[in-house]
Structures are given as C-alpha cells and as structure tokens.
Write a structure and sequence with these properties.
elongated; 5-stranded mixed beta sheet; about 45% helix; about 220 residues; alpha+beta; 5 strands; 10 helices
Length: about 220
C-alpha cells in the first residue's frame, strides 16, 4: 500500500507536523529523508529494509559512499544530501554552543563534541579554545591516531592556544571502542597538558572523553 493511502495520522510527514519529529521512529524519519520508495516498496518499507541491512540508523549515517550506495534505493545524490543535512546539524550545534558560557551550558558543548567525534574509526584529539569569559573562539582537531591511540604533543597544543589568543580551553578526544572511561594514559596526558598550558597562563577547564552514551568529564570526576 502506498503511503498516500495510509490514514493521515499514520503518514510520517503528517505525524511529524502534528506531533513533532521526536514522535517518529527511525524508519519514519528515514522515510521522510528518502521521499520515495522503490517498485513494490513504500518509502517506509525501504527505510525499514535499510535499517535492517545496516544494523542501525547510526551505522547508516556513518557509512562511506561505497557502502551507502551498495544498498537498493540509495545513490550518490542521497549520500550528498545526507552529508549536507548532518553538516547543517553540526553547524547548528556549534552556533548554539557559541551563544553562551561553555561552563554554564555544558549540554550544548557535549552535544557538539559528540556530533564531531562519536563513531569515528580512529582516535582524534581536539581542543575547544575559549576566551577569558569562556566563550568559544574555535574548535580544532589537533591530532589523529589509530584505533588505539593518538600521539599528542603539549608544545603543539600550547602553540595553537596562543595562536587563538585563548585564555582557557576544553580538551577532548574519542574512544573508538565506544567505552568512555578514561585510561591511565588519558590521566597522565591531561596532567602534562595542564602543566604546560599553565606556564603561559592558559587554563584547562575540562577534558571530555567521547564514546557511546554521555561523554565523561574529568572536571566532574575531580580528575583535574
């Protein structure tokens, strides 16, 4: 049955307009993005097939071009559209984070960092540079590693902080394993960076480890 033959309250677009996007299932949201199905399959049917094939919505969103286009109903045009939508989402989160104090709006900071680092197949170390009122100056990826580690050089972190004229910063990195628990190496690195930055009067306000679930905050754990 075509979606146009469904009761109005069950059609994804109408449901979104009346109840909001949060009320829709992953398949319904994906169906709206797809717009059309394929012969014999409605957009919702196709969306369900794709979610089953990829294993999850997250896996679909993180698929590269070759893997994405290897599924029926998907092609380069859809891939480009999806990348554009996700980038708009990241930029929205960045603007939201810029509007306030990074310490008084930790939720927006965490949402943005997750959008940047969650699901990457390699470890990335980055910094959120802040002014003396804790407003965001810039987010910058500084080091990229393998599945297990990234080599982080305090001298380079200090150099970039000075280049941005930052008064403070928030350190962040991801764990590709999905486990957010800080390692002993993470603790040692944080101490080294904090000591190095203190020499030029730049404060480390937090170090957030991004994995599945909520990022782990060193500041909240009392690890700074």
């Amino acid at each position: 049955m075509a979606i146009t033959d469904w009761p109005l309250a069950e059609r994804p677009r109408e449901k979104l307009l009346s109840q909001g996007a949060a009320a829709l299932s992953d398949a319904e949201l994906l169906a709206i993005f797809l717009r059309t199905g394929i012969p014999g399959r409605s957009a919702v049917d196709l969306a369900r097939d794709l979610l089953s094939g990829f294993g999850s919505l997250r896996a679909l969103l993180q698929a590269d071009l070759k893997l994405f286009c290897g599924h029926a109903g998907l092609g380069p045009a859809k891939f480009v559209q999806l990348q554009a939508v996700m980038e708009m989402g990241r930029r929205h989160l960045y603007e939201e984070m810029q509007r306030g104090d990074a310490l008084t709006s930790p939720g927006s900071v965490r949402r943005y960092l997750k959008s940047q680092l969650l699901g990457l197949p390699h470890e990335v170390f980055a910094c959120l540079f802040l002014d003396n009122q804790h407003r965001v100056i810039a987010f910058e990826e500084l080091f990229r590693g393998t599945l297990d580690s990234a080599s982080v050089y305090p001298r380079e972190v200090v150099k970039r902080a000075l280049a941005h004229n930052a008064a403070a910063l928030i350190l962040t990195h991801n764990h590709p394993s999905g486990v957010s628990e800080p390692s002993q190496a993470d603790l040692m690195l944080t101490r080294r960076l904090k000591e190095s930055l203190a020499l030029v009067d730049i404060r480390v306000l937090d170090h957030l480890v991004v994995g599945d679930g909520e990022p782990v905050s060193f500041a909240e754990r009392g690890l700074l």
